[in-house]
Amino acid sequence: MCGTPTGDTGTGRPRLYCSAACRQRAYRARTWQGTPRQTIVLRNRAAHLACALINKAACLHVLLNEPEPGVVRASASALTEAALDHARELLQVLERR
């Protein structure tokens, strides 16, 4: 986890962590739930991003029914990029949970 060589004991399974402290740090990183305040903030941010994605999808749906293709192409491209940015950020927020 920290990058320190684990060393070869010669017998048994190879070590994954260089020390007990490093093993504990990895465990905490895997199971961290955060404080209640941090959890609420992450939940609110995830809800905000999900709503933004829904709004972008609704706008794209309206644009796809637009009779002028030039308007659709430029606007849809910008909306798609914004939606992808929101989706990436949402994934990052959900991975922190």
Describe what this molecule looks like in 3D.
The structure is a single chain. This protein has 97 residues and is an all-alpha fold. The chain has 2 domains: 1-32, no CATH class; 34-96. The protein contains 3 helices and no strands. Helix 2 (36-64) runs antiparallel to helix 3.
How is the topology of this model organized?
Layout: H1 20-31, H2 36-64, H3 69-96
Question: TL;DR?
Answer:
This protein is mostly helical and 97 residues long. Helices cover 71% and strands 0% of the residues. The protein has two domains: 1-32, no CATH class; 34-96.
Specify the number of helices.
Answer: 3
> Which percent bin holds the helix content?
over 70%
**Outline, from the CA principal axes?**
elongated
Whole-number total of structural domains? 2
Largest sheet: none
Radius of gyration: 23 Å
Query: Could you report the average pLDDT, rounded to the nearest whole number?
Result: 77
| Unreliable stretches covering 5 or more consecutive residues | none
Q: How many β-strand stretches?
A: 0
Question: Which features would summarize this protein structure in a list?
Answer:
3 helices, 2 domains, 71% helix, 97 residues
